[in-house]
Write a structure and sequence with these properties.
Layout lengths: L1 E3 L6 E3 L11 H12 L5 H7 L24 H6 L6 E6 L5 H8 L1 H4 L3 E7 L4 E6 L6 H10 L4 E3 L2 H41 L3 H22 L1 H12 L7 H20 L6 H27 L3 H5 L3 E5 L5 E5 L8 E4 L7 E7 L2 E4 L1 H4 L5 E3 L4 E2 L4 E2 L4 E8 L4 H11 L5 H31 L1 H14 L3 H20 L2 E2 L4 H8 L2 E4 L1 H5 L5 E6 L3 H10 L6 H7 L7 H4 L8 E7 L3 E6 L2 E6 L1 H4 L6 H9 L3 E7 L2 E9 L6 H10 L3 E5 L4 H11 L3 E3 L4 H11 L2 E5 L4 H6 L2 E6 L2 H7 L2 E3 L4 H37 L5 H21 L14
Parallel strand pairs: 17-24, 17-26, 24-25, 26-27, 27-28
Antiparallel strand pairs: 1-2, 3-5, 3-6, 4-5, 7-8, 7-9, 9-15, 10-13, 10-15, 11-12, 11-14, 16-28, 18-23, 19-20, 20-21, 21-22, 22-23
């Protein structure tokens, strides 16, 4: 009796003793590995996610000896990997259940500390303890589970080059085979009109079989391989219709050659394989070109550098080829290509997008500079410490891509592709049967044309390519986003919540007036707020500048600040001089009757009151003012015109927040909200949260999409889904518009590909398209969508991000 295999769900023989059934020893091995390391939960999770047999493929040998070269320290050093860290590329990564399984291996494998799967390109970032486990052993385990890895190393690069050569060779063999078979076909066609001896006709048929064999086996192998692999994994691969057509036509021709009865199609099949390979080659080249735009590191760091030669001459060099100890020259206005130490010259460096420091930093010989920052002063020379992916910004680029996962619209396209393949196969069977009864000589061309032209390549491939192009343009405009899914989430969300201070306003608060501050209080407050980077803390700290401390000789240097505690959204507390101090909002401290008039006066004028409390008694107050960001009013108007519901959440006093909201035309405003309150609000609302990449971390994490305006990219990407390097309110509008356009492009591609396939499938069924025309039309659909994605406007083109980082 046939039952499902316990591992891959393919047919298997039922056991007599009730043990799990397996279709092959490989599946039994994989099942045993999962059981031994305690990951049996993989199977129910796979079923819940609808993965079916898409999870683990049939496992291969887990022998770590195959991957012994990965343990070579010199190889790891050449790759720039730190001890215990590496990246590998795995095959057969098909669904989110696979991702779940791989990322839980560290829980079961001693010494394996971390695995992060980048679903988009099948890359695994690994961290392990070299004292407990070797990389070769990890690679062997992955291979045993059905995910054979390849190192991103010299061997990997060599394999890529060999793969490219094999493609060209396969094209050449198929082209030569098609050309020779066509010459024989001309003789056969001529003989059918003028007459030909049966012996000669049989000889030409066998000769055609011999000459066609290379194209129909070696040339068509990629289509057969992908189809068979898909069937083993329980999937209907997009190449399956092509493989069925080629295999069926070849089988019919061979039977006709052997029996001497029936038509042969070697010429059509060979030319079909050649045209399919040409179309697939051009299509792949186009996709690689499009996807190369998502090389984040290439956008953040210049690709070229001026290396200083031994004689002092300047040599143009690829930046990623530089080694530690080399020296480069950076001209005024140029982007620094490496992490290193200044050896000559003095200048100023704009590092705002990387570190969040708004003011240019002065640098001189002996000081460290970072790749991706801009030299805004004079010419300098830098000694290389790290280049390429090993730089600080290289680590940031890896982080941007680390959490990438297919967005919902791409998963939808994948599901439609599988259904479409089933429909095409069924339609081919029906159409072949009908044409056999109407005109048997036309049945084969109709079926092959339908199978070839209905290959849903455009449906399955144009969507990720379009999303990649959209995200690449977003990055060039200064919108860093770790996942392409963010594009769809931004476009689908209709609510936006803004923080106030530093988001809608400039965040450069200043003290308008104060009461109760003397030299002593001002110095204590300044000392307490000394480490604060919050706009309120910086403003209150500046009060001490109004006193001539040097003239009075009144200093608090003897006071030691202890028990300093930051209360997000409320203020800061500390012990100074043995007394308890608090500096913060009216909601946290109060004000008492002594400052009620001043508080009311500040609130009426839209100013933020900040109180100072000593031992439970309010002793001083400052009224702080802030200015709206340029373009804030216009940006809010544009967002409302696009149908967005706008709200403000702030820790400031409700009346101050209402004043800002009223000036901007925002109906919903909330004040006196702690960081936890903001997080709870945006989580319940399922909205876009726009705020400070540092001070609004909980809310940015909790939001459907967190957008960080302020702070450096390193900090912002820890908590947000999008980091806007420009920091302006107009950037929020451009982000929303760009994401909406991007999703529109993808949806348009989906609709076009469906119409394209249905229309030409109907023409093929009607017998109006022959197999050769189908081979030309099929790749043309993907190329058309690729071209449309490239020329479509999503995020407007502007100065590259690397010129501003």
């Amino acid at each position: 009796m046939s039952v499902e295999c316990a591992h891959c769900k393919l047919p298997a023989s039922e056991t007599d003793d009730g043990r799990p059934s397996f279709c092959c020893p490989g599946c039994e091995q994989a099942f045993a590995i999962l059981k031994d390391i305690g990951l049996e939960e993989y199977y129910p999770l796979r079923d819940r996610l609808g993965g079916g047999a898409q999870g683990l493929s049939r496992p291969r040998s887990a022998a770590s000896g195959t991957y012994a070269h990965l343990d070579d320290p010199q190889l790891q050093a050449q790759l720039g990997n730190d001890p215990g860290e590496a990246e590998v590329v795995v095959e057969d990564l098909h669904c989110m259940a696979c991702v779940w399984l791989l990322e839980r291996l560290p829980d079961a494998v001693d010494g394996l500390n971390h695995i992060r799967v980048r679903f988009s390109d099948g890359t695994l970032a690994l961290r392990w303890d070299p004292e407990k486990i070797h990389l070769s052993e990890i690679a062997g385990l992955l291979s045993g589970l059905g995910y054979p890895p390849s190192a991103i190393d010299g061997r990997g690069a060599q394999k890529i080059r060999l793969r490219g050569r094999r493609t060209i060779i396969r094209l050449a063999v198929s082209g030569a085979s098609a050309g020779n078979v066509m010459l024989l076909a001309i003789s056969l066609y001529a003989g059918s009109f003028s007459g030909m001896q049966l012996e000669m006709e049989n000889f030409l048929g066998w000769a055609s079989l011999v000459l066609a064999a290379p194209a129909l086996t070696y040339g068509a192998y990629p289509f057969y391989r992908s189809s068979i692999r898909g069937l083993k994994m329980g999937q209907l691969h997009i190449d399956l219709p092509i493989s069925v057509g080629l295999f069926g036509g070849t089988a019919a021709s061979v039977v006709a050659t052997v029996t001497g009865h029936g038509d042969i199609y070697y010429d059509s099949l060979c030319v079909l394989v050649f045209l399919l390979l040409v179309g697939r080659y051009v299509q792949t080249k186009g996709q690689r070109w499009a996807l190369s735009e998502t090389n984040i590191l290439g956008l953040l760091i210049p690709g070229d550098a001026l290396q200083v030669g031994q004689g002092g001459e300047l040599l143009p060099t690829a930046a990623d080829r530089l080694q530690a100890g080399d020296e480069v020259e950076v001209t005024k206005g140029g982007t620094i290509p490496v992490d290193g130490v200044v050896t000559r010259g003095r200048s100023a460096i704009d590092a705002s997008s990387l570190t969040g420091e708004s003011s240019p930093l002065s640098v001189s010989p002996g000081m460290t500079v970072l790749a991706g920052t801009i030299n805004v002063g004079s010419q300098i020379r830098v000694k290389v410490e790290a280049a390429g992916r090993n730089t600080r910004i290289g680590a940031l680029a890896r982080k941007i891509m680390e959490t990438d996962a297919p967005p919902p619209i791409q998963r939808f396209a994948d599901r439609v592709s599988r259904v479409f393949v089933m429909a095409v196969l069924a339609l081919a069977g029906v159409a072949g049967g009908v044409w056999w009864m109407v005109d048997s000589s036309r049945a084969f061309p109709v079926v092959v044309s339908l199978l070839v032209i209905s290959c849903p390549c455009a449906l399955g491939l144009a969507t990720p390519v379009a999303l990649s192009i959209v995200r690449a343009r977003a990055i060039r405009r200064g919108f860093l986003m770790p996942s392409a899914a963010t594009i769809e989430h931004v476009a689908a969300t209709k609510k936006i919540v803004f923080d106030k201070t530093g988001t809608l306003t400039l965040g450069t608060m200043e003290v308008i007036w104060n009461r109760g501050f003397d030299e002593h209080v001002a110095q204590v407050v300044a000392e307490i707020e000394r480490r604060s980077e919050h706009p309120v803390g910086r403003a209150v700290r500046s009060i001490v500048d109004g006193f001539d401390i040097a003239a009075t000789g009144s200093k608090v240097e003897s006071y030691v600040v202890e028990d300093l505690c930051d209360h997000p959204g409320q203020g800061i507390s500390a012990v100074c001089g043995g007394q308890s101090w608090r500096v913060g909002s009216t909601a946290w401290i109060g004000g008492g009757d002594s400052f009620s008039v001043e508080i009311e006066r500040a609130l009426e004028s839209g100013k933020t009151p900040v109180l100072v409390e000593l031992e439970g008694r309010t002793i001083a107050m400052a009224a702080l003012g802030d200015r709206l960001r340029p373009g804030a009013l216009e940006a809010i108007h544009d967002l409302r015109s696009m149908g967005y519901e706008i709200s403000i959440c702030s820790g400031d006093h409700p009346r101050v927040v209402s004043a800002i909201a009223g000036g901007l035309g925002i109906d919903h405003a909330r004040g006196h909200m702690s960081a936890e309150d903001k997080a709870a609000y945006v989580r319940a609302a399922g909205c876009i949260m726009v705020g400070d990449g540092i001070n609004d971390a909980p809310a940015l994490r909790a939001a459907k999409v967190g957008v960080a305006l302020r702070g450096g990219a390193e900090v912002a990407l820890e908590v947000a889904d999008v980091h806007l390097t420009s920091g302006g309110m107009t950037s929020v509008v451009e982000l929303v518009r760009g994401c909406r356009r991007g999703v529109t492009i993808v949806r348009r591609n989906l609709v076009f590909s469906l119409i394209y396939n249905v229309l030409f499938a109907a023409l093929a069924v009607a017998g109006m398209i022959n197999p050769l025309a189908a081979a030309i039309i099929m790749p043309a659909s993907s190329l058309t969508l690729l071209f449309a994605s490239v020329v479509a406007k999503s995020f407007s083109r502007s100065a590259p991000l690397k010129a501003r980082v």
